[in-house]
């Protein structure tokens, strides 16, 4: 299952007040997806393997599951508390981009993992693009001189 994000809509609203309102649902959606997919191999490895293909190192699959689940829990907590800090934005964007790169390289170019990972890789790219679009909107609102993660970070969060 991949999360589909309308990147064009994220780009269109990223530059205004609505762009800020996309951060919470984006964090909650990505967090829920990561929590579920991270827990899956821990809860029922046979069904995970049936969908994603055989695994040579089950301990490594479980380790990655724990890490992805932890990222998911962090994004869920940040979204639930309405505290989408620059660090949370960076974690969300970097994890989606990193997972996409690995999945698209090894499922597409190298053909070392099951093709189903191409679907997830596409969803991860959409998540990364949505975070980048929201971040670009923040930079436009706050001034282009600062980096993406720092844009809007003044040491205090705006009242919501």
TrEMBL record:
Transmembrane among keywords: yes
Record's keyword terms, sorted: Membrane, Transmembrane, Transmembrane helix
Entry's transmembrane regions: 59-78, 90-108, 114-136
Superkingdom classification of source: Bacteria
Protein name according to UniProt: Uncharacterized protein
């Amino acid at each position: 299952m991949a999360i589909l994000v309308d990147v064009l809509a994220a780009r269109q609203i990223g530059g205004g007040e609505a762009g800020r309102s996309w951060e919470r649902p984006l964090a909650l959606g990505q967090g829920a997806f990561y929590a579920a997919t991270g827990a899956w191999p821990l809860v029922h490895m046979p069904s995970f393997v049936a969908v994603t293909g055989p695994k040579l190192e089950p301990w490594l699959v479980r380790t990655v599951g724990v890490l992805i689940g932890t990222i998911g829990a962090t994004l869920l907590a940040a979204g639930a508390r309405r505290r989408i800090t620059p660090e949370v934005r960076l974690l969300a964007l970097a994890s989606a981009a990193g997972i996409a790169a690995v999945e698209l390289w090894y499922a597409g170019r190298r053909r070392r993992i099951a093709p189903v990972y191409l679907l997830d890789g596409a969803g991860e790219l959409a998540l990364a693009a949505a975070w980048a679009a929201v971040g670009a909107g923040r930079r436009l609102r706050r001034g282009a001189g600062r980096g993406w993660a720092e844009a809007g970070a003044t040491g205090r969060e705006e009242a919501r």
